[in-house]
Write a structure and sequence with these properties.
- Residues 67-401 form the Amidohydrolase-related domain.
- Its cofactor is Zn(2+).
- Pathway: Purine metabolism; guanine degradation; xanthine from guanine: step 1/1.
- With 436 residues, the chain is an alpha/beta fold.
- Helix 5 (139-151) packs parallel to helix 6 (175-189), helix 9 (251-257) runs parallel beside helix 10 and helix 15 packs antiparallel against helix 16 (404-414).
- The protein is globular, with a radius of gyration of 21 Å.
- The mean pLDDT is 98.
- Helix content is 38%, strand content 24%.
- Strands 5, 6, 7, 8, 9, 10, 11, 12 and 13 form a nine-stranded parallel β-sheet that branches. A seven-stranded mixed β-sheet has the order 3-2-1-4-14-15-16.
- The chain is built from 16 helices and 16 strands.
- The structure holds guanine and fe (iii) ion.
- Fe (iii) ion (FE) is lined by residues 75, 77, 230, 268, 322.
């Protein structure tokens, strides 16, 4: 059964940090995206494609809307949904006072399921069709998330957090149980529908040498599986890592030593990485997730993303909300914060670059750009439909917009969940704003 959505389409065929916008960005007015069996069967100008559709094909028309690849959130903690906006602390105190308290609740599978449902519902309300998601130390937290995600047939990446020191006892595993439980989750979920497992050491300070060794061994057994963690977010954290791992040259050196830097390894933050560490990430093929709302919220600093993406040895970069340190599920609001972060370094992120990071750039950072992150025949049919006049202010502001770049910039600065008119996953509408 073929279905289609009709409206203006925006997607990327290249990288607007390295190529001119006209070569990297694709914009088609009044396009048709034809979907079949969960994939994009064809797309192009509606005038050319309409006649190829069977007469009974269902076409959803979105005049004055922009059809985008579904957004990709490269770094997010679903269990922290219930503790967003926790007052007053920076990273290490915030973890101890809020995060490690909240995450203990996920020993209860019913609680995990309820939070997973709220979390995925919010992602879909924000046009996010793929997340790379941290669970808690409890394997059941990941079962709950994958189960809920499978109800919407989402492409989702997630893993059980591994941590065996420097946290409350109730949140600790061991080197062996981290290995065994992660391995069992891989066998249970990896490649089931669109679920992908991610090996997930929380960050260097909460894993012993023994645990990092075991997770390195697991990673070596599964060379194609993704890895996620945190790196170089906060200055006190970095000093602590230096103390805990005196034998390693720097923070990136810790992950390298245990075989955790490689393609499809994605690290949150990287705000304070040295040139040598960025080079290590490039050489290994690892990626970074830029989490600007979180970096501002926790006072961690602001990433100079051009040091990553425009270096001679570039590091792949995606955008992360990093909830619950991040302040919004909205990738538009995350782009807004990424723009502000770029301004603190004196060179503004363009709208095209921001939309690229939130779609194809994120997919490349996660190693899934052959499946999602773009609108192309053969790719999985994950779409976000953006209403360009979603608030009275945006309606007014859009009357004064001169070109596409300005329209996109206004959307990412002023838009939020209200701008998402519909979200499609594997060709099916999984959210419609006006059907609340
Ligand atoms: N570093 C280690 N754990 C976390 C976390 O849960 N959130 C953030 N922002 N940083 C971390
Ligand atoms: Fe995080």
């Amino acid at each position: 059964m073929k279905t289609a959505v009709r409206g203006d389409v925006l997607t990327f065929r290249g990288n607007p940090f390295r190529e001119a916008e006209r070569d990297s960005l694709v914009f088609q007015r009044d396009a048709l995206v034809v979907m079949e069996n969960g994939r994009i069967a064809a797309w192009g100008p509606a005038a050319e494609l309409l006649s190829s559709l069977p007469p009974d094909a269902r076409i959803e028309h979105y005049p004055d809307h922009l059809i985008l690849p579904g957004f990709i959130d490269c770094h997010v903690h679903y269990p922290q949904t219930e503790m967003m906006a926790a007052f007053g602390e920076q990273l290490l105190d915030w973890l101890n006072h809020y995060t490690f308290v909240t995450e203990q609740g996920f020993g209860d599978a019913d609680h995990a399921r309820e939070v997973a449902r709220v979390f995925l519902g919010e992602q879909l309300r924000n046009g996010v069709t793929t997340g790379c998601v941290f669970g808690t130390v409890h394997a059941a937290s990941v079962d709950a998330l994958f189960e809920e995600a499978s109800r919407h047939d989402l492409r989702i990446l997630a893993g059980k957090v591994c941590m065996d020191r420097n946290a409350p006892d109730a949140l600790l595993d061991t080197p062996l149980t981290a290995y065994e439980e992660s391995r069992a989750l891989i066998e249970r979920w990896h490649g089931k529908g669109r679920a992908e497992y991610v090996i997930t050491p929380r960050f260097a300070p909460t894993s012993s040498h023994g645990q990092l060794e075991m997770l390195g061994a697991l990673a070596a057994e599964f060379p194609d599986i993704a890895i996620q963690s945190h790196i170089s977010e906060n200055l006190d954290e970095i000093a602590w890592v230096r103390q805990l791992f005196p034998g390693c040259r720097d923070y990136a050196g810790v992950y390298q030593r245990y075989g955790l830097l490689r393609p499809r390894a994605i690290y949150g933050h990287g705000v304070h990485l040295s040139d040598a560490e960025l080079e290590m990430l490039h050489d290994s093929g690892a990626s970074l997730a830029h989490c600007p709302t979180s970096n501002f919220f926790l006072g961690s600093g602001s990433l100079n993303l051009r040091r990553c993406v425009e270096a001679v040895k570039p590091v792949k970069l995606g955008l992360g909300t990093d909830l619950g340190a991040g302040t919004s599920f909205s990738m538009l609001q995350t782009m807004n914060a990424a723009y502000m972060a770029s301004q603190t370094h004196g060179k503004p992120l363009t709208a095209a670059q921001a939309f690229y990071l939130a779609t194809r750039g994120g997919a490349e950072a996660l190693g899934i750009s052959d499946k999602v992150g773009g609108i192309e025949a053969g790719m999985e049919a994950d779409l976000a439909v953006l209403d360009l006049r979603s608030t009275p202010l945006l309606d007014f502001r859009m009357r004064h917009v001169r070109d596409l770049s300005e329209a996109l910039f206004v959307q990412m600065m002023l838009g939020d969940d209200r701008a998402i008119a519909a979200t499609y996953a594997a060709g099916a509408a999984v959210y419609r704003r006006d059907e609340r």
